[in-house]
Design brief:
Length: 243
């Protein structure tokens, strides 16, 4: 298993906050243009390669991270060796904040990605003097809880096609929030990753993709690029799929 590798650590002289996808998102979006440099200087900007781990489950939760580009995923391995992918992480997502002294999940790069990191204690101390930032951290915590509830619901209540439709709608929403296309869905993760996220087998995921494509709800341009053809029908499918 690859360990975390930090590369190309940069300083303020290389700051590119104004062009960063995360600039107007949950964490950085509450900071004024002059204060964003102070926040940036408090941390470090780094790159991570595809397949590398940003942090490992049970490791000390020393750092928190804001994703600038690319995609990562949060995963946990059970005692039987089976994997559950908790969520996929998009540009602008803030991760690593926990009430525990250790991370409860591992974070691995789905593709080459970039992020900013801060020591958790230093960021929390900084937030005490910046009311908007402290409020933003609480909002982020609420969003994480909401996504967890969604995940529990789809795993417990929906069949395979409904789960996939729900996942594609989630992806669409996450892309919109990250400033990306609503209908051209970028899926750099493997079908195995999607299966482990939805609690399905690879074969079942493939059949579900084929069914949605056959029903003209989506178009599979490539395995990593899906076009939503009928957003309303996809919503109906996610709510109550009929065979």
């Amino acid at each position: 298993m690859n360990k975390t590798i930090y590369a190309n650590t940069q300083n303020r002289g290389d700051n590119n906050c104004k062009d960063c996808r995360a600039r107007n998102r949950d964490l950085c979006g509450v900071m004024s243009d002059d204060k964003i440099y102070t926040l940036y200087d408090l941390g470090r900007s780094n790159n991570i390669k595809k397949g590398e781990y940003l942090f490992m489950e049970e490791a000390p939760s020393t750092y928190v991270y804001n994703i600038s580009s690319g995609m990562l995923m949060l995963e946990r391995i059970g005692s039987d060796g089976r994997r559950q992918i908790i969520s996929f992480v998009y540009p602008g997502d803030f991760i690593g904040l926990t009430v525990d002294s250790n991370y409860s999940v591992s974070c691995r790069a789905v593709e080459a990605s970039r992020f900013c990191r801060w020591k958790r204690t230093e960021l929390e101390q900084f937030a005490e003097g910046h009311q908007n930032l402290g409020k933003s951290l609480r909002v982020i915590g609420n969003k994480v809880l909401a996504r967890t509830i969604d995940q529990i619901f789809i795993l417990g209540r929906k069949n395979a096609v409904e789960r996939l439709a729900f996942f594609l709608l989630q992806t669409s929403g996450r892309q919109i929030h990250a400033g990306l296309s609503e209908t051209q869905l970028n899926l750099p993760m493997t079908r195995t990753d999607i299966a482990d996220h939805l609690g399905l087998t690879i074969e079942t995921v493939s059949r579900a993709f084929s069914r949605l494509s056959k029903d003209k709800l989506i178009e599979l341009a490539t395995p990593s690029l899906v076009t939503v053809l009928d957003h309303d029908r996809l919503i109906n499918c996610a709510d109550n799929y009929k065979v």
